[in-house]
Design a protein that fits this description.
The chain is built from nine helices and seven strands, in the order βαβαβαβαβααβαααβ. It starts with a strand and ends in a 6-residue tail after the last strand. Strands 3-2-1-4-5-6-7 form a seven-stranded parallel sheet, with helices on both faces. The longest helix is centred in the middle third of the chain and has 29 residues. The protein is an alpha/beta fold. The structure holds nicotinamide-adenine-dinucleotide. The site of nicotinamide-adenine-dinucleotide has 28 residues, from helix 1, strand 2 and helix 7.
Length: 244
């Protein structure tokens, strides 16, 4: 059986991707920063109900040593790592003029350094297997910029460059690497926006609604599937036509 690891998958988009990949038949390695993140939901039960194996791996993906231990444990548990989804991410928004250095550095390390850590470690496993699929979560903020998010948009733009680089470095070994760039999706991350901010965003979206987490998971499932075997180094926007 093939296995997939999804970072930051206790809730939100990551949990939806994990459930979708379980439905596709993958054994699932869930990851989040603490056990507590799993307490208020039933993601493990939902995944095992699909008839696949599921294990939780607690690790802070911004830390290389945590990732190293986790990737070894996942490989030992499942035997192979066929799909890596780099989903863990945070926001610490603020206008540049008022942003603290720590606020900038934290978002870069959680959103961007984590993707290096995981692609390097899992990439080594995939290169030896001569197959693998990597999907990274970027954002429309990384493609177009967004006021109040200089840290976040920097991290998400970097992910696009990293995705294209890894697609070029690992393509000859049968490993594809793509990114998805969601627009505004209903999750705990976007619940934090004020009603005024939410309305302003919806006015800009061609489809006049927020996206659902399953609408991200469906595209990730495609990129992990056999049908996407000749797709690499691409960034797919999933934004209901926010920009075009
Ligand atoms: P979320 O906050 O609901 O979930 C993120 C998960 O990542 C949480 O469970 C969190 O505990 C985990 N996490 C945070 N730091 C971690 C760390 N250091 N190590 C391990 N896990 C960690 O967010 P979401 O809305 O589901 O977003 C998922 C991804 O999609 C993020 O990368 C985000 O930037 C991206 N994204 C989201 C939207 C949106 O509208 N929600 C839009 C564009 C991109």
């Amino acid at each position: 059986m093939a296995a997939a690891i999804i970072t930051g998958s206790a809730r939100g988009i990551g949990a939806a991707i994990a459930l979708r990949l379980a439905k596709d038949g993958y054994d699932i390695a869930l990851n989040d920063i603490s056990e507590a993140m799993f307490e208020s939901n039933d993601i493990v039960e939902k995944i095992t109900a699909q008839g696949v194996k599921c294990e939780k791996f607690i690790a802070d993906v911004s830390k290389y040593s945590d990732c190293e231990a986790m990737v070894k444990a996942v490989k030992d548990t499942f035997g192979s790592i066929d799909v890596l989804v780099n989903n863990a991410g945070i926001t610490r928004d603020g206008l540049m003029a008022r942003m603290a250095e720590e606020q900038y550095d934290l978002v870069i390390s959680v959103n961007q350094k984590s993707v290096f850590n995981m692609m390097k470690l899992v990439g080594n496993v995939m290169m030896r297997q001569r197959s693998g699929r990597i999907v990274n979560l970027s954002s429309v903020a990384g493609v177009y910029g967004n006021p109040g998010q200089i840290n976040y948009s920097a991290s998400k733009a970097a992910i696009i460059g990293m995705t294209k680089t890894v697609a070029k470095e690992l393509g000859s070994r049968g490993v594809t690497c793509n990114a998805v760039a969601p627009g505004f999706i209903k999750t705990p991350m976007t619940d934090k926006l004020t009603d005024e901010q939410k309305k302003a965003m919806i006015d800009l979206i061609a489809m006049k609604r927020y996206g659902e987490v399953e609408e991200i998971a469906g595209v990730v499932s495609f990129l992990a599937s056999k049908d996407a075997s000749y797709v690499t180094g691409q960034v797919i926007e999933i934004s209901g036509g926010l920009m075009m």
